[in-house]
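Subject line: Sequence and fold of a protein, written as structure tokens
Area: Proteins and the way their chains fold up in space.
Start of record: The labelled sequence and token lines come straight after this line.
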Amino acid sequence: MKLDRRQFTLGVASAAGLVGLGPLGRAFAARDNEMNILCWEGYNSDEVLSPFRRANAGASVRAESGTSDPDMINKLRAGEVNVWDLINLNQPWARDQLYPESLIKPLSKDRFMPYFEKMLPEFAAPYPLAFADDGNLIGMPQRFGPFSFVVNTDKISRETAEDQGWNLFLDPAMKDRYGVLTYDNWNVIHMCLTAGLNPFEEVTGGNAEKFKATAEQIFGGSKLLSDDLVAMNTALINGEIDAYFTGGTYTASPARFDGATNIRGITPRSGPVDGKGGVVWIELTSAVNNPNPS
């Protein structure tokens, strides 16, 4: 039996109704003032959560930051659909894995569609990738930003980096001068772009060989491999490396906030996808298919 908040409120508006549901009613009542959020870093901050807590006095709001999209998905696959109410991921995962596996559930269009009108023009249409192929609304876009690569502008100027784009990492002079931020499979799109391939088309045959050769060159020419953005920024600041593949506003911001404004995310001016080569990640917040929803 599944009840969302509206159905629960209508069905058990009185004490008699709550008693009539027996143990199930008590279980749902216990969750009525609780919300658990599995999310990317930032959504678990007081700046984000405090306004909700103030508006919902007595509510218990718990937010846990994940380390990667696959890691958070695997938590749900392992049974934590019973724990979380909301999940925040980069949107391809919601459309291609969470929703097909019934780990998230559609949102009410009547309730949420009006919010698109308050968004930036690029999202107000509304944003098409917030919808599944069957037309259901499966999440709301929130944070977004460029994620291509990062340079130390004291060593590589912004203009040079933007003009060279991904070819910067194929330049023999860059060998042992850059790092690779090893975020699971995030780099696949970027390596396609570096190879001059469209990552949104199937890569086969000669293109697959080109991708393989490019990946080998990128990893083989790197001085530092790490999934720690702090380590990457520190290496840039200390002069150990001059750039890292991949990164952007999200990874460069902590260093810039601390005063290292020479650490800068770069978006290439051109690339193989209709002349474009930049990457932007867009996060989607979805309702977990929790059998005992908040």
